[in-house]
TrEMBL record, chains A, B:
InterPro entries: HTH_HxlR (IPR002577), WH-like_DNA-bd_sf (IPR036388), WH_DNA-bd_sf (IPR036390). Keywords: DNA-binding, Transcription, Transcription regulation. Residues 36-134 form the HTH hxlR-type domain. This is HTH hxlR-type domain-containing protein. It comes from the Bacteria. PANTHER family: TRANSCRIPTIONAL REGULATOR, MARR FAMILY (PTHR33204), TRANSCRIPTIONAL REGULATORY PROTEIN (PTHR33204:SF18).
DNA sequence: CTGAATCCCATATGATACTG
DNA sequence: CAGTATCATATGGGATTCAG
């Protein structure tokens, strides 16, 4: 199941969006506030699989199996859950074709595309700084 | 306990770092590869609490209690675990003062500081796009 | 055969009580 | 104050089974 692990009362319609999410007077209304809905959003995007999915989808739509191959090692369930969460949050679209064998394609939405830059930066950071991180781990564990 | 949830054989010393993490010939050696150590790194940084901790620490060292206050809603245990993981990976330093009452300060390392930009971008993205995300959720759930 | 739901376990996270 | 210990629960994730 796709659960919403967040301690926030959902807003209602898209129309009233701006009003609902305005900070109460005198409140620091940021991702740091436990009552701010943006935390739900941060939890979704600051996530290992999300980062990889968005990064991989940049080059165009991919079907389920291709994503699974690209994201070496992800299980079917986790990929399904991740994709559904991303679809729900408006980051990707899901296009199912009535064919045999079945074909389902996932594609970045404009919103999702705005996330690609930031997330790919993160992926690159991870790749570029492994040596330093692993060295730090070695040093730390040696004590 | 602080666990390492990763499927990677640790490298050995900092000296041999460059050799060990060179990709086997013909391999796409990226964060997408399940055998690439950078995944361990990505898992740590692409994380809700990590993003918030690094973001908050940018303005200078903070002590445990201040961090806990700033990161509204985090439990002591989780904050401890998160900080220890970040320290192990060389992102922050921990300075303990022999005073009563005790004082412990956490500070970004140069390595950690290189992460601040990318992660704060993510936090800001979350803050700026909540309306769109919540609207998308509304639309999705309405079906 | 592809995509995804189900079952089940490991881990992550959180609340609470306790200590130097 | 800054943790640790313990316990309870939520979530992540893999193996398997199911559906079209």
């Amino acid at each position: 199941m796709v659960t919403n692990n967040l301690n926030v009362t959902n807003g209602r319609t898209a129309m009233s969006t701006q009003k609902i999410y305005a900070p109460p007077p005198g409140t620091n209304w940021s991702v740091l506030s436990s009552t701010c809905p943006s935390r739900t959003s941060l939890a979704r995007i600051a996530n290992k699989w999300t980062a990889m999915v968005i990064t991989v989808l940049e080059d165009g739509p991919l079907r389920f199996g291709d994503l699974r191959t690209a994201l070496e090692g992800i299980s079917g369930k986790v990929l399904t859950d991740t994709l559904r969460d991303l679809e729900r949050d408006g980051m990707i679209t899901r296009q199912s074709y009535a064919e045999i064998p079945p074909r389902v394609e996932y594609e970045l939405t404009p919103l999702g595309r705005t996330l690609h830059g930031p997330l790919s930066v993160l992926c690159r950071w991870a790749e570029e700084h492994i040596p330093e991180v692993l060295a730090a781990r070695d040093a730390y564990d040696e004590r």
